[in-house]
Task: inverse folding
């Protein structure tokens, strides 16, 4: 994504789509070769070739999905009224992700090793508000997906049964279903992709898994510019909250995770947002 900046964003998105299609073709060619070897090889090598074929078929699928994402992103960027804008590249990609999943919204959240949010990029304001409920209450599909390293889905009343605070609040925003998949890079889980009100066909979580994998490998892992590209720069890093958590951590002699929990508790007790409490802490108006 590092190249997606300036007036040629759409053209470069199309170039990335073409590159992903080429990668898909190459992965398919390798898969076919292993499938052929598995069919004629002995027992000792058959399982190896079958495994290699399966891996490359997964890579092929991931590259094709990524190509569709960039193709959709190109269309959205072409429709921008101001070609000089770069701050909507991230939301545009999330909007394309939501459309491919047939969902009302999509949110990509990167979570650090301390289980604190690093940044979030949402397809639209409503999706962002739904995600903010997780940050407010410290519970929800994204956080569960990261903690368990497995896909999380909830539909209807399951929302309120599974999450005591997030569920009812999400329901009040007319959310009826969610699907969140962990975004994995090797042994690491770097965050999660959450689909808001996915279509019936995407509620199993398989679609979120595929799209999450595509985003993790193409956007975050460096194939399209690495973690310093416009997508991540456009995300909300919540600097005020992180600074406030650091202040509370030093003042109270606790971990940053516990400090963030204290800030969340204060926000909940006061009926305010975490960001509002954080700003007050930074200005010296309140403690957590």
Result:
């Amino acid at each position: 994504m590092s190249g997606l900046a300036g007036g040629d964003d759409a053209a470069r998105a199309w170039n990335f789509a073409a590159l992903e299609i080429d990668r898909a073709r190459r992965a398919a060619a390798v898969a076919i070769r292993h499938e052929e070897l598995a069919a004629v090889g002995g027992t000792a090598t058959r399982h190896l070739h079958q495994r290699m074929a399966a891996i490359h078929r997964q890579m092929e699928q991931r590259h094709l999905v990524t190509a569709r994402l960039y193709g959709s992103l190109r269309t959205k960027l072409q429709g921008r009224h101001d070609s000089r804008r770069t701050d909507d590249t991230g939301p545009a990609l999330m909007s394309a992700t939501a459309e491919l999943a047939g969902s009302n919204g999509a949110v990509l959240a990167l979570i650090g090793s301390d289980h604190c949010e690093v940044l979030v990029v949402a397809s639209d304001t409503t999706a962002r508000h739904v995600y903010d409920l997780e940050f407010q209450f410290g519970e929800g599909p994204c956080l569960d997906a990261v903690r368990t390293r497995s896909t999380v889905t909830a539909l209807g009343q399951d929302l309120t049964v599974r999450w005591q605070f997030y569920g009812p609040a999400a329901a009040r925003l007319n959310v009826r279903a969610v699907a969140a998949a962990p975004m994995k890079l090797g042994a690491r889980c770097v965050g999660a992709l959450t689909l808001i009100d996915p279509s019936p066909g995407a509620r199993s979580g398989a679609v979120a898994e595929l799209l999450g994998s595509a985003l993790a490998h193409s956007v975050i892992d460096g194939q399209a510019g690495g973690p310093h590209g416009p997508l991540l720069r456009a995300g909300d890093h919540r600097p005020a909250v992180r600074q406030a958590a650091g202040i509370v951590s030093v003042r109270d002699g606790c971990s940053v995770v516990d400090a963030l929990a204290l800030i969340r508790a204060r926000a909940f007790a006061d009926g305010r947002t975490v960001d509002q409490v954080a700003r007050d802490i930074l200005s010296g108006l309140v403690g957590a």
